[in-house]
# Entry
Amino acid sequence: MTVHQARNRRQEIPLKLELRGITKRFGDLVANDHIDLTVEPGEVHALLGENGAGKSTLMNQLYGLLQPDEGQIVVDDEPKVFRSPRDAIAAGIGMVHQHFMLVPVFTVAENIALGHEEVRGGPLGWLDRRRSRRDVIETSQRYGLPVDPDALIEDLPVGAQQRVEIVKALTRDVDLLILDEPTAVLTPQETEELLTVMRSLTDMGKSIVFITHKLKEVKSIADRITVIRRGKVVGTASPQTSEDELASLMVGRAVNLEVTKAPAEPGRNVLKISGLVVDDDRGTHAVQGLDVVVRAGEVLGIAGVQGNGQEELVEAIMGLRPVRAGTVELDNEDLSGMSTKQILRSGVGYIPEDRSHDGVVKEFTVAENLVLDMYDRAPYGNAFKLNPAKVAESATERIAQFDIRCQGPETAVGTLSGGNQQKVVVAREMSRPLRLFVASQPTRGVDVGSIEFIHGRIIHERDQGTAVLVVSSELDEVVGLADRVAVMYRGRILAVVSPDTPREEIGLLMAGITGGEEESK
Amino acid sequence: MSTATVAELTEVAAPEPFWTRQRRLGLGLIIFGGLAAVLFGALAPSEAARFTLSEDAEGAALSINGQFGAILFGVLTVAAGGVLFAGLAKRRQTLLLTLGILSFVLSFLCWQVAGKFLPLVDTSSGTLQLALPLILGALAGVLGERSGVVNVAIEGQFLMGAFAGALVGTMAGSVWAGLISAAVGGVIIAAILAVLAIRYLVDQVVVGMVLNLFALGITGFLYERLMQPDAAGYNTPPQMPTWSVPGLSDIPVIGPVLFQANLLVWVALLLVVVIHFGLTRTRWGLRTRAVGEHPTAADTVGVRVRGLRYMNVLLGGVVAGLGGAYFTLVATGSFSKNMTAGAGFIALAALIFGRYSPFGALGAALFFGFAQKLATYLSAVGSPVPSQFLNMLPYVATIIAVAGLVGRVRAPAADGLPYIKG
# Structure
């Protein structure tokens, strides 16, 4: 077995990695343009770049999922060609993907064993479950990463799933670990824990490539930083570099990291949710008796680790998921039971979490996407026909107004960058008279320039007197936008706090930890 | 240390809707059981219904008064439904449901058999024989679908298998040559399915349907041009011999059913066990299930997703081809146009009814086989129910089983989705 040979050959010898002139093209798009990168043994090398800068593409080539068009991967001064992840693993490279590569209906041990199963002889390959379990326990103890080998993945919280992913890579005796946006789904405390784990791994001689767009984490953990912009290496930096400098390197110009806004002037209660219960796809209660109020002219931010019912809450408000119990009232009118169309037309704007599935129709043009909500209304058309001239005219207007960078109204939305696609969604949803604006992960997969713009529009909408509900797994975003922060944990609002509350406190709440015991004692 | 605590959240008891699945099933059983008790009870003559252990009316038998039995089992159905409806059955839902349906069937039988007799051995072995192609077809489905390839071409694989088995069996004068060719016939269809679905990413259901039509067309054409003009030369395959296991075949009922049978019966039953343990206990099975659930995850740990899918679909072709051999080498003795008559689709239903598991598929196939056997038996003894309705029985049973009883079956997550790298 090649894996095992490699394992014996290189035991305890740290791995040195060099990427030389890696180039990858997808059609006309140059995703990676002659990238050079050296990862020294035992270092944490941060790969910093915006969404879409080409970080993941680069790492997928290093992990054998994609093959470079040009350039060389050199491991320990020896050029390598990785045709599949199998080759990469054999060379001592492991990867923890942003979207976990775990089979939800398998146990932890099964997931970790998959691909290099312990088997007893025979042509069938009878699984040796006891040895698989033992391997998991051994590795998890050796690196201090507690995992239960018999738990089903789908029952585990994301933080635990991530540990499984790391253990999975480590059981393959890799010496270089690629972590692709590992902190995106973690609470601040879990992030701290992860950074500690990363530190102890490098102490044991492993190298780590840490892909991220979060500057604070880079500064606290990285030994060296390589910044990528639009497929090119634009510079290397040391962790002493200031956040502003890193940000401008990453974006290519000076950026304003803070959301500037005047104090809110909240008015009447626009959205009032009481006792809301909503089921997830598996039929269990994802939202469990939630109460919340959003007032006119304020932004209520919902913070929380992904998977605590935020998605179901938003979908229930929008009529995309049945309300099992409780009420959702818009200015005292019950929305539950209304169709999504009725809800949209009663003055609710909506940025869905999954832009490419729920936000836009990729094959449609910008102009068509901009009237998806109003295509059968004057002036764009009626029940029988569209009015293409009006559609195009309004599209041209809104493209300018919302700074949508495209060749024109007839461009297919699928060809635009993530940020510009999102601006199309924002432009569409903000073109109706609104009472409530619901934004779920409004800047996920969006470049910094577009983030600034979208945040500005959301605040602008607030200042017009609209009630705004923002759901985001990025705590920075919630705290930056919100006038009040509601922390959601296991289907309920655990507390509503001011955005000025210390991060640590919000982080503890996100993990379900309340400090309420002191008074009762 | 601060005295922070993890928030203790009690689960909210959201109001359960009154009409749960359990309640609906319970109500269904109550209604059907009540109808059975009243209707079958009223129609059944007050004569003995004999379930005989031997082939004829004499000999050892389980006997019950028809009218009494019809009412008794009808009431039992109602009782099972009542327990379900009252919500008393927490975990035993499936058991009660099975019990209820069984009682209903028995009630019906008591009415039909009253004053006559039902030979148990013949019924059981007939059930097994009729279930045979369904078992094999459903297993072929299990192999493909657990690895993420939907196979609706089981019907086509049956037809090709049946045809190839008859043709080569006749020409070679050997039933074994026929059997092997039948497997090859199934593999041919499977290969086309695999290449189009896995390599060219064509919609798998559409490909499957087209392949069914293709198999129907080509076997029909060759039958007319080749077999009809010279049946002796091309369409009189030797039949699969019946072997009996000495000793074991003397066990009452079970012996003649299981140990006095043809090779295909044993192959089918053995395959159920092999595939079950293969899927759950071997490296191949773990990888197959991973590829069917989350191919990207499998790929990132070095499992060859497409290769494994090819292998499983082709293996499925072998199994379905053997199922096709049943029609010409066991059941009838010659090929005729469209002789499978939708059995492939019933096998597909058995696969889903059996929740994509080998033993589930076996149970479902036996259920459908019994429905078919019952239809033949009832028309033979001159049931008052019109024969057209009796012939509908297996199909009605299929619809009720798949639509009503299964509820939500969880298919492999990546079933039917082509895998595109990157």
Remarks:
- Chain A touches chain B through 51 residues (CB under 8 Å).
